[in-house]
Amino acid sequence: MIYLLLVVTLNLSCVEKKPTEKEVKNTESVLSLKTDTLKFTSAIRAIFQDSKGNYWLGSHNEGVSVYDGKSFEYFTTNDGLSDNQIRSIQEDKNGKIWFGTANGISVYDNGTFTHYPSKNNNPIVDWKATNGDLWFYAWEEDGINRFDGMNRHYLIFPKPKNKNADNTYGVTGISKDKDGNVWIATYAALFNYDGKMVTIFDHDKLNLKENQRLHIRSVLADSKGRIWIGNNGIGVLLMEGNSILNFSEKNNVIHPASTGRGDRSQPGTLEHPFAIEEDAEDNIWFGDVYTGAWKYDGKALTNYSNSDKLSNPMIWTIYKDNKNNLLFGMAEGGVYTFNGKTFDKLF
């Protein structure tokens, strides 16, 4: 009983503690768990291969795991992570691994976690006043975080009028184009930053119909300069030069009875693309919540269902590793590769 009271007291003290702008937690003394196979059962939301070849796998609610080719090592909030939901993984020029979580940013460097809390009391309107190549989701949901290697800069979006009361400007995807411009997907709008100014693509500018709901979940700037936008409910939007069209509608993969509101879709439709990636042959891949993977080769769309192997066909993320292999992070907690016909489990 005394032990339980002590644990409860310690937990409450951690919850009530107010984070500083930069808080360091040393994890060298923590005996992190290691396994021969990946033990995650919640979705794989982020995949990253670092410069040493290690694979970092971010889960929906179980923290992160790193695979060195021999075993899987795990880190959770007990080891210094800001939160156990991992939304993005990046590496800086010094080899530090950065995790965007559901509640703050954590940086891993040789056994030590540096924690940047979720709130920033110094928002910046002038984006040109900052620099740095690391971009992260911002928890205030009206801006984005940018790191210059030393400090975090919370940048405010020049928001358009939000026509959907149930939509927010929480960041759902970030992609850099071949010219270095940053494309930032949020639920309610797409933002483009060219280093000088921010351009807004809202409901009207993306040529949506009056009854169509903008609810962006993914974005990809491909090698040809095209911008692919995954919208939950109305499929894929394609921006090519000055042209913007509904790619899913054009390819007849929207069901005639679709509500466009995110309801469960029928087989053979591409209405809920949560992940978009380009492979080494310039094919564009889409990961749908209900219908598996889709490949566009420049001429035709092909659907590769994974429902025969998985109880949940949802693809959370698609990642191209250092050898140009495509890795698919699944909702049921595994990582799969595609052999040209079917999916094979990698982790």
Automatic annotation (TrEMBL):
It comes from the Bacteria. It holds the Pfam family Reg_prop. This is Diguanylate cyclase. InterPro entries: Reg_prop, WD40/YVTN_repeat-like_dom_sf. One of its GO terms (molecular function) is phosphorelay sensor kinase activity. Keywords: Phosphoprotein.
